[in-house]
C-alpha cells in the first residue's frame, strides 16, 4: 500500500535504491507460454541507459538484466517474473555533500520529512534509475500485446519541435528519439552547450498508439484516459498529461470538436473507440542545475531517455486493461 | 474490479444509471465520531445540480440525499456510509430515439461494444448524473480534512479568463464559479446564445489548495500528482491535467523554474512540500450539439457544475493520502 | 480498506446497521446480459430470514429486496448492482439496556474499543442481519455459474447428525436444512426446549460442490482453499474451516490418504482438480443466553439460517475465481 | 492479481521456482527506522531449512538471504525490501521422470491444467521452498510488533501429542518444535522408520499469541479470524483452521461456552479482545510416498519445518492489522 505497485491484473512491484545493492521488479499477470528473449529485454533497457546519448549524461551504467524467476526453457510460466539489475557504476562519493543538503525540486527534503530517514546517495528510491524497473515491466507487457504499436517521440525540446507527420516519415529516431533526425548534430551541440552552462531544459513527449481494440477502459474511475494519466504522471519530472486535442479543447466550440473523430484521441466516454490514440505529456527541466550539475554527471535533458519509459507505462496499462476486458464477458462463465 | 471504486484507505464505490431507480455511493474509511450534517451534504449536492444556473440546462433535478447507514445520532460510526439519490425528474421519453443511435463523443457506442448491452436512456451509467455520487463522497472526505482548503474555479470559458489573483479577490463565485463575478450577466447572455445556436464550449478549471501538510504522496506510483491526475481525468469530459507551471515547463530552462518555489506547484518528487498546491484541468465542449441539443435539455457548458465535482475528487484524494500517511509511522507499531 | 469489501474480480461491498435506515450491498463484476428475476432473489433472501423456521427466533423480518441499479428490462447491465433492504421490524426499545452493557461473545465491547463509538441497537453493523447482504451477492454470483451446484447442509446440531449420503437421498431439506427430514418434529421440539431454557447450541455445516472445473485457485496466497477459509470464517459465529478429510488428516498416514482421490476434497496444491469439493465449517452456539435470550427474540441455533449464507459465500468465491481464470489465458491477449 | 501477494498495508509478493535461479520476496509496508540484523534474518531462515532436523529430509539447502534493497546503515528505509535466496542445492536430475508424470496430491496436474505449462522440476512455484519467502516476510513483520509474542508448536504428530501447558513448561522446543522435548529420541526413531517405509504422517500445529491489543480485525470481511484462516490455509499441506474451542464448539451449549472467556480464543465479533489468542491448524501427510519417497529426499513429516512458516504468517497478519488500525483514528486527520 506504499505506492510501490502499479496495475491490477497486469501489475508490477518495483524496488531498489540507486546506491543500494540492486534495483528490480516483480511482474505479475504475464500469460504463460509467451516466448521470452533476454537479448530483446536487454535492448529495451539499453534504450533507457545514460551515457549512450552524446550530450546527455556521461555516466555509464552497465545495466544488465538478471531474470530470477518466471521463465523456463525460453517461455514464460505464468508465474511472477523477477528481474534485477545490480548497481555497479554508482559513484556514491559524489553525493557525500548531500547527506545534509536538499536539492531543490528533488524528493530529498520531502522524502526526509515523510520517512524520517533516507538514503541520501543519488536520490535513493526516487532516483531516475527506478525507471529501469518500469522499462523491464513494459517489455513483458509488450509480449502480451504484439498487435498494438506504441510510438513515443519528443514533440518539443528547447527550440526543436516535431509533429506526428514527422514521426510517420521517420525511420529510426534513436538516439534522441526526436523524429527530425537530420537535426541530430544540432541537438548534440545544443545539449552540450546547456551542460557547459549548468543549465537544463524540459519539453514534451507525445505518444501515438495504433491497433487498440474497442472497449478498453473501465468506467467510472478506471477509464483508459484516467489510467494513462496516472501511469504517466507517476514518472519523475512529468508535470502534465492530455489526450486528443488536450488543452486546445479550451479554445473550441462543440461543433469544431465533433467535426473530426480523431479530435477525441481514440477515447470516448473513457473507453477506447478502436481509433488511433494520441497522448501528450510535459516534462520539466532537470532540477540539478548550476554548480552541482557541472560537478556531477547529470542530464541537461532527460527527454530522450524518458521516451522508452513512457512507452513502457503505456504498454503496461494496455496489457492490464486487455486482461480486465477478457475477464468480463457476457453471461455465464462456467462453460 | 470494474472501475467502480476509487481510492484505497478512503474509498468509495458508486452505482446507478441515470434513468434507473437511484444513483448512489458507499463511502468507506470515514473516521468514527465526526459530526455529520445532512443539510451541509444537501448544499454540496445543490452546487452541482443543473437547472439552478441560468444559461445552463433547464432540467430541474430534485436531488435529495438519503443516508442509509454509517451515521447515528449526528455522528459518523466508522462503518460504511451509503447515500442514495432517487431519479425523479428524468424524462426517459426524450431518449427513445437513442435506443438505436449513438451520440458522437459520448460513451454510447463504446459502451455498447464493451458490454453488448446498455441502458440507452440518458447515458446510463456514463451519464453526468454519476458525478453526484462523487460530490457526496467529497462531502465526507471534507469532514476528515477541515484544515485543508480546496478552491476550484473556472480559469477559462469561451472568451472569459480569470487568474488565481482574481480568485483571491472574489467573495462568493457562485453560480458560475468564475472569479470575476461582475461578468455574470455577460456570461449568462453568452451561454443562452450558445444554447440557442445548439453550440457548446469547453474550458479550464484550476484548483488552489492550501493547508496541505508535507509528506503526502506514495512513491513510486501513487505520487500525489499521479493520483490527482487519475481522479480528475476520470471525470467525464476532462481531457487534461497539469500542476505547477504545467505545459509552460516545456518552454523554460532549469534556472528559470528553480527560481520560484511555487513553480513546483506544491509537489516535489511526487510528495507534497507543504506549500500551496496548484492544479489545472481542461474540459472539452459538451458533445450534444446541434439539433439534439435544441430538442433536449443540455448544458452548453458544463464547467460551472463541474467545479464542485473537481473539488470533491481532490478532497477524496487528500483524505486517502492522509490516512495512508497516518498508517505508516516509524518503528514499532504495537505500543 | 475497512474490511467491507469481499472478492477481487467478482466483489461486493456491504453496508448497514441493523437498526439504521437500511442494509444493502453493491455487487461488482456481474457479467452483462444475464437474466435477472426479482422473485428468485426474494426467495433466496427468504431462506435466510428469521421467524420462518419454527423453533428459531420469532422475529419476523419482512426483508424485501429493492434493486436500485445495474439491471434493465430483466437483464444485468454489467454495471454495479445495488440492492437494499429497509429495516422495518426492528424493535430498538429491546436494546436500550445495551447502551451501556456489553453482551459476552458479541462484538459489543470490541467494537466500542475499536471505533470509540457504536450503534448499540441490535449489534449495529455486526448484527446477524448483515448476512442478508451476502445472500444477495450470492444470488448474483449464482447467475454467473449455473453449471456449478453448491449444497450446504447441517451435518451436526446438538444430538442430530447427518452425512453426505443422507443429503444425496434427501429431496427438500427446508426448513431446517438438515438432510434427515423425518427428524423435523424432533428438531422443532429440541429447539423450543433450548429456547425455553435460555440455552443455545452450535454445530457443523458441510458443503458439497459439484461441477467445478479444473484449475481454479491462484497460488501462492489465493489458493481456492484459502479463499474458502476466509469467506466462511468471516461469517459471524463461524469458528473453523476444513476441507477433504480435514482434521482427520492428523490421524492418518500418507498411504491411507492417497488411496482415495476424494480425500483431497477436490483441491490439490490449492487448485481445484475437477472432482467434487467437500468443505466443513463449525459454528459456535449463539451468544445470547439466559435471561437476555428469554426476554429477546433470539435464535437458540442459527445453523438453519446460516446454511444459505454459507452457500452464498461459496458461490461468490467461485465466481471470483472463474473470472480470474478467464482473465489469464496463454500467450497474446490482443487477438 | 495472480495470488502472489499477501496482505494490504503490510504486504509482500513472493516469486521463484524451486529449480529456477532464485526465490525471493519483496516486502512492502515496513516502517522506516527499524533496526535490521541480517544474522537474525538468517537464523529465522535456518529454522525452516531441511536437512537440519534428523529424521526429516536429508537435502541440505544452503539458504543464504541476500538483501537487495530497503535497508541502509542497519536500518529500514520504509521503502520496499527485496530479499532473494539463490537455489544452489537443487538436484534437478532427480525430477526428470516427472516431466511427464503427475505426483498425486501435489499441484503437478492442476498446475499443468491451469497454465498449460509448468516447470516440472521439484514442484516449480508450488514447491515447499516457496515458504522461505514467507519466513523472510515474517521476520520483517516481527520487527514491527516486538511486544507481541507468537509461539507455534506441534500439538499432534503421529502418536505424539502435546498441550499448551506442555508448551509453557518447555524451554527450547527445537529441533522438532514439539513441547515434550524428552521425546526427541523417540520422535527421531519414529520419523526414520516412516522414511524407511516410504510413509509419511501429518498432524496439528497450534499457535498461542500474547500481547495482542484490543481492536484488531476489520469487519465484515477482514475479521481477524478470517485473515488468520486465509493466511494459514494458504500454506501448502494445510487442510484446516480453527480458533478457541474450534470444532469442539459443535458439542457444546451456549452456557458452557460463555463460562470461560478464553473459549472465545481471544477474538469476539471477529475483533481481538485483548486476551491471548489460540489457533489450531491441521496438516496432511506429505504426498510423496512409496517408491518416489525412498528414491528422493523427502520429508516423512513436514510439521517441524512448518512451524516457523506458521509463525511468519501470523506475524504478517498482525502487522497488517495493526497498520490498518493505526490508519483509522477518530475524527479529523489533518492535525
Automatic annotation (TrEMBL), chains A, B, C, D:
Picking any one GO molecular function of the record gives: chorismate synthase activity
Query: Which UniProt keywords are given for this protein, alphabetically ordered?
Result: Amino-acid biosynthesis, Aromatic amino acid biosynthesis, FAD, Flavoprotein, FMN, Lyase, NADP
Tell me the residue numbers annotated for binding FMN: 125-127, 269, 284-288, 297
- What is the name of the protein in this document? Chorismate synthase
Q: How is the cofactor bound?
A: Reduced FMN (FMNH(2)).
Q: Which chemical reaction does it catalyze? A: 5-O-(1-carboxyvinyl)-3-phosphoshikimate = chorismate + phosphate
Q: Which Gene3D superfamilies match?
A: Chorismate synthase AroC
Supply the EC number(s): 4.2.3.5
Description of how the protein assembles with itself and partners: Homotetramer.
Which cofactors are named for this entry?
A: FMNH2
What Gene Ontology terms for biological process does this UniProt record contain? amino acid biosynthetic process; aromatic amino acid family biosynthetic process; chorismate biosynthetic process
**Pathway involvement of the protein, from the record:** Metabolic intermediate biosynthesis; chorismate biosynthesis; chorismate from D-erythrose 4-phosphate and phosphoenolpyruvate: step 7/7
Task: Fetch the Pfam families from UniProt.
Answer: Chorismate_synt
Offer a single GO CC term for the protein: cytosol
Hey, which family's this protein in? Belongs to the chorismate synthase family.
Name the top EC class: lyase
Say what the protein does.
This reaction introduces a second double bond into the aromatic ring system.
User: Which organism is the protein's source?
Assistant: Halobacteriovorax marinus (strain ATCC BAA-682 / DSM 15412 / SJ)
Q: Where does NADP(+) bind?
A: 48
Amino acid at each position: 500500500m506504499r505506492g510501490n505497485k502499479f496495475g491490477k491484473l497486469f501489475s508490477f512491484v518495483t524496488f531498489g535504491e540507486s546506491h543500494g545493492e540492486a534495483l528490480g521488479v516483480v511482474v505479475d499477470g504475464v500469460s504463460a507460454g509467451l516466448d521470452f528473449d533476454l537479448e530483446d529485454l536487454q535492448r529495451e533497457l539499453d534504450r533507457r541507459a545514460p551515457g549512450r546519448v552524446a550530450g546527455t549524461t556521461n555516466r555509464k551504467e552497465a545495466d544488465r538484466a538478471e531474470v530470477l524467476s518466471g521463465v523456463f526453457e525460453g517461455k514464460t510460466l505464468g508465474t511472477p517474473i523477477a528481474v534485477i539489475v545490480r548497481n555497479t557504476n554508482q559513484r556514491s562519493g559524489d553525493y557525500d555533500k548531500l547527506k545534509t543538503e536538499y536539492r531543490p525540486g528533488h524528493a530529498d527534503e520531502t522524502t526526509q520529512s515523510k520517512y524520517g530517514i533516507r538514503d541520501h546517495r543519488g536520490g535513493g528510491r526516487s532516483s531516475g534509475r527506478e525507471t529501469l524497473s518500469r522499462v523491464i515491466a513494459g517489455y513483458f507487457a509488450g509480449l502480451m500485446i504484439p498487435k498494438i504499436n506504441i510510438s513515443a517521440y519528443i514533440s518539443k525540446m528547447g527550440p526543436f519541435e516535431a509533429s506526428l507527420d514527422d514521426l510517420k516519415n521517420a525511420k529510426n529516431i534513436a538516439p534522441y528519439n526526436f523524429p527530425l533526425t537530420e537535426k541530430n548534430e544540432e541537438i548534440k551541440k545544443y545539449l552540450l552547450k546547456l551542460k557547459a552552462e549548468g543549465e537544463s531544459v524540459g519539453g514534451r513527449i507525445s505518444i501515438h498508439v495504433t491497433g487498440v481494440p474497442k472497449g478498453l477502459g473501465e468506467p467510472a474511475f478506471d477509464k483508459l484516459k484516467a489510467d494513462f494519466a496516472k501511469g504517466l504522471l507517476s514518472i519523475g519530472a512529468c508535470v502534465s498529461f492530455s489526450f486528443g486535442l488536450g488543452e486546445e479543447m479550451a479554445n473550441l466550440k462543440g461543433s469544431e470538436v465533433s467535426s473530426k473523430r480523431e479530435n477525441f484521441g481514440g477515447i470516448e466516454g473513457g473507453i477506447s473507440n478502436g481509433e488511433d490514440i494520441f497522448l501528450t505529456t510535459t516534462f520539466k527541466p532537470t532540477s540539478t542545475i548550476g554548480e552541482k550539475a557541472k560537478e556531477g554527471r547529470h542530464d541537461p535533458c532527460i527527454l530522450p531517455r524518458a521516451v522508452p519509459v513512457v512507452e513502457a507505462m503505456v504498454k503496461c496499462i494496455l496489457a492490464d486493461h486487455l486482461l480486465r476486458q477478457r475477464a468480463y464477458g457476457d453471461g455465464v462463465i462456467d462453460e
